[in-house]
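yo

u said u wanted the structure for the complex thing, so here. seqs first:
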Amino acid sequence: MTRPIRLGMVGGGNDAFIGAVHRIAARMDGHFTLVAGALSSSAEKARASGAALGLAPDRTYDSFAAMARREARLKDGIEAVAIVTPNHMHFAPAREFLKRGIHVICDKPLTATMAEARKMVQAVRASKALFILTHNYTGYPMIRQAREMVASGALGRIRLVNVEYVQDWLTEPLEQSGQKQAAWRTDPARSGAGGATGDIGTHAYNLARFVTGLGLDSLSADLDAFGAGRVLDDNGHVMLRFEGGAKGLLWCSQVAPGNENGLRLRIYGDKGGLEWAQEDPNYLFHAPLGEPKRRLTRGGAGASAAAAAVTRTPGGHPEGYLEGFANIYTGAARAIRAHQAGQPMPDLDDLPGIDDGLEGMKFVDACVRSSRRNAAWVRLG
Amino acid sequence: MTRPIRLGMVGGGNDAFIGAVHRIAARMDGHFTLVAGALSSSAEKARASGAALGLAPDRTYDSFAAMARREARLKDGIEAVAIVTPNHMHFAPAREFLKRGIHVICDKPLTATMAEARKMVQAVRASKALFILTHNYTGYPMIRQAREMVASGALGRIRLVNVEYVQDWLTEPLEQSGQKQAAWRTDPARSGAGGATGDIGTHAYNLARFVTGLGLDSLSADLDAFGAGRVLDDNGHVMLRFEGGAKGLLWCSQVAPGNENGLRLRIYGDKGGLEWAQEDPNYLFHAPLGEPKRRLTRGGAGASAAAAAVTRTPGGHPEGYLEGFANIYTGAARAIRAHQAGQPMPDLDDLPGIDDGLEGMKFVDACVRSSRRNAAWVRLG
Amino acid sequence: MTRPIRLGMVGGGNDAFIGAVHRIAARMDGHFTLVAGALSSSAEKARASGAALGLAPDRTYDSFAAMARREARLKDGIEAVAIVTPNHMHFAPAREFLKRGIHVICDKPLTATMAEARKMVQAVRASKALFILTHNYTGYPMIRQAREMVASGALGRIRLVNVEYVQDWLTEPLEQSGQKQAAWRTDPARSGAGGATGDIGTHAYNLARFVTGLGLDSLSADLDAFGAGRVLDDNGHVMLRFEGGAKGLLWCSQVAPGNENGLRLRIYGDKGGLEWAQEDPNYLFHAPLGEPKRRLTRGGAGASAAAAAVTRTPGGHPEGYLEGFANIYTGAARAIRAHQAGQPMPDLDDLPGIDDGLEGMKFVDACVRSSRRNAAWVRLG
Amino acid sequence: MTRPIRLGMVGGGNDAFIGAVHRIAARMDGHFTLVAGALSSSAEKARASGAALGLAPDRTYDSFAAMARREARLKDGIEAVAIVTPNHMHFAPAREFLKRGIHVICDKPLTATMAEARKMVQAVRASKALFILTHNYTGYPMIRQAREMVASGALGRIRLVNVEYVQDWLTEPLEQSGQKQAAWRTDPARSGAGGATGDIGTHAYNLARFVTGLGLDSLSADLDAFGAGRVLDDNGHVMLRFEGGAKGLLWCSQVAPGNENGLRLRIYGDKGGLEWAQEDPNYLFHAPLGEPKRRLTRGGAGASAAAAAVTRTPGGHPEGYLEGFANIYTGAARAIRAHQAGQPMPDLDDLPGIDDGLEGMKFVDACVRSSRRNAAWVRLG
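structre next:
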């Protein structure tokens, strides 16, 4: 193992949920070491958070702009940055690091608005640095295997895709209590046009595309905001039409009591079906047409090369969310190292990037447009 | 127990699936005795089937018309008839028995066409006899309990209904092989305008309404016929808007490999959620908002009065499809006996009848109309 | 179908649990018609129960002895009798009917004592009539399939058998409240030497033997009576050594909160494993060595001829406890009819009888003997 | 966060399974940094493995003895060492580090022999350094919660403990193929007197004790070696008698096809029951007597303080084996830091140590002694 890649972080101060997840994921396989941070827009909180994480004081910054400027000049400055701020604060920092050649690992969705999304695309294209979007669920081994099985024709021609991401944490108007996660996710200024669609619907849509490889023709969406006083959708029903004739249903909700992170994917072709659930991610159920359903296990009987490539522990010793997330970071490390070595880029097919980010933004935009037009069929913009 | 009610049967000859189910359901609790039948439109097969069932030769008829005429005149003629023919053969026999005051227990959907459905409504209204439609899934004890819980406010105000009925048996064009069940179900002349929507979508829709009590405002349906050469839909994606603001998703499919009779219902209100699956019908999962999910068991801890009223065995000794079906027959027997005794009709609220039948036909009709108009929102006719 | 077999019943009056189960099982497939009963040792209750079941008053008897005498003389007297009394009341009635050539269908365990059990064997041997013991769990289709698979060598050489029957209904001293089921099952005078071992341990042991065909070499049992004031065991831990070297664990308990009727069987050979649970009986899990686990479904993909032979509904339309019980009755009917026709007896291999009854009694006796000797290894007597 | 603790490793070279697990666990929360290693008894392999892990060449040692001597003299020498060698190589290195005041984190079981185990106890007592044994399953959040619930009396008085650890990887004589893991685990010289009992039975026994707090009175064990040519047990059936009257069953097996790492724990008291399975570790099922079973989720509804204290991600984002393992390392870090600061030791009650190690060795020894005496009841030595 070569030395770890030097990583900075924007956002992710004390009490932020996803920042801690990124840090563990970056650390899991030893490929990254966190050395700098602009961890909060509050200078005081940024310093306290940096100290808590053991960052050197001179590499704990008050602003992402200061961090970008100084780190770019340091001999041992950061080589990559993780951006884990709310959606509306993705583009501005990403641009600063990208233009200095610092690789960006950015949380999803890509941005808060379509306009920013398009600017992000430009910024990525103009940069020599890499851009990775943490659609982390694609990092699960059995999802990698599902993708491989679909591509190999194990299901025959795909006819149906059923994907849902169902939660319950916004059943009540939690944002009115001051809960930070709820506050920004229900605020159009920080989240963008989509509520549940942007937060989790994009994950569901990305996962369906990642596994099936199908392109979307059009969608029809019926969005609702059930929570009292809520502006952004907290539930979305979406019918999908894929190119080539496959059909799909996508359901995202944050108001379904009893569901924590119920991301479930079911895919059916004319030769078989696959079923997977994020809450029990070590299992992939495969039903070859006319035969009994089989339970394929990560690390165990039936696991494929694609799964094995991102597997750490044997079957029956479950891996979880953090390991899946770490697989994205480890893929990013592999890409960054090839880039640094001037080697031909490895196959990044499995690594979500700017195209996925733009597609996700278009998905949210299309859902909102469709729903405003009484669920008319719309194409992605 | 008073003597069993004398029952006749139209359809259900050798090799018919649902006829045998009706006979077991009728016999399960001892409330009916099968004494006459017009079991097939083929005279020879009708006789052979009658003999196999132990019917007296003089009560084995070549036609439902002959059976209706003669049985109505017999002193110990049939008091009720089960109609278990394909959809297009529901109305004609039902009319004959209804007009002679013989109670009708009819398989679903009500008829093959809307025109016949409306005539059926007239025939029922014009008759003194009872009309019961075997939406058998409403007979499951935990479905009765779910209905009771929703009505009691255990879930608060209902926001979301997710119902699906997913099968795989028509993944390949089985009807081209001459398989009888597949042949008539994919034939518009015998099934009507709906394929999967009529055969199983009506069950799903009925179940959602039975449990929630919600009235439908409108729906948007995207129907497909994936099977080669197939005319009727074998997959339906339907978005639902209920009166009062609740939303729903309904998915019915006969082309999803690995699914046998995957009828699943999930209901979410602002105080909790309920989940139930027909293939594991003895469990009802209840998630009060903010509390752990509980597994309520038929006959066991958490079972309510509504469930207990239709329960035969203790918790952990599973009841199944036939017991649920028998609960419809036993409810029918109770109603028929009250009717015969001139007593006030018992509360038939739990017993599906002509209104449910018409609603189901309207549902299929609306799905087909919507789908033809590119999934436009339509109201039930 | 020929006419139903005329059946009488001993025990099973109002409020008895298992009597009602036997009646439904006898009726399910139309092979039996209940025409006589000695339903209670209380004359008044016997009459009331007979009336409730619609029996003719002159065939509602005060005692089994009276029933046996009179029915044997009637031209259309009963051809078979179901004995559904507590254990200590199995032998006396069975003897009366057997000696008059009336077939006996008897609940398990065979008797209350070993002495009676041996007398029962004599009575059966001395009679021309058939004797069937309702080890009903052997009637489940997927159990029939499991047996078939083991016999066919699908698991290779059997090494391990793990069987358990776990309940919770006697966690508290329910018998002290006057609850009838608890009262006799915890009373040595009516149950015999075994509590949980006799009531449910015999089922578990029978099921393991039925599926594996293994003969027992010896066992070591540690029995406990946890319930306050309880004499008979309510929990049993039993280690098993089979002939040929296979080993087993058997656990029966009535004091494990959260378990209703948790009868579970796991069998492992050198080529594969099988797992089955009575509470979800339509599934049989098969793990061929080194391959993914498969879920075989009753009536569906992977169901074998042995399962299909006792299956009524298609896959995904669950059958349950009553259908499994009915399979015993239907097997009994087939045997009785062959007997009446003077035909060679059909293969009764699947039908539990006197040998199983005696084996079960020996199992209980051995458990009690072993436990009294500090779990010494003992052979069946 | 203060700086990471400097960690060395003995064993864990390329291709060793458990070494990689320890490294990830040590790294997960950022509390340790691996700086030195004696990774293999082969000098060449030790160097190659050190290089692959990015260790400095001068801190890649040929032997644990050299590492202990030199690191103890370095100013920035290791503060703790992880010993991840086969069982027979635990004691010798542990002694070297302990006597130099370097904290030891040792894999289980404690040693290969009872004699070594007792020497290990002496070495630990004679040292000022800490000794932690990685009974990693005690690190699972829902196991912490189960322990807390039992201690709080949520189950009432414990009556029954059922624990099993079932695998299938030694169904065939894998050790004869040269597979390294199988080779040493089936070799008495390297594993000790127990095969499955030592490898996984000790985990099961430790887990049962950890959660219930019960002391063992005696056990009766029936061990088998089913694998061809195998000397050590690959299957163990064990009956347990706890002090105070509770009873238990323990089953460990490595020859049960279809089981990967089936560690399952069920505990029943007179007020309720708990069930947990390592392969689905985010759920804890709690059945209060007479109430529906509840599914408590890690990070979600019903999770307790004890669970929350070792939880990283919200409910529905599963944690797994590595996170549970990391909880042991993080507990170790906390203890080491308190020790270094001369602070009163934190409550190490949750952290497995030398006492657990000795108890585990006694358990294996007792199983072997009992089995040799035909499963006689024996006390721990």
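The first strand of chain A starts at residue 5 and ends at 10. The longest helix of chain A spans residues 321-340.
cya
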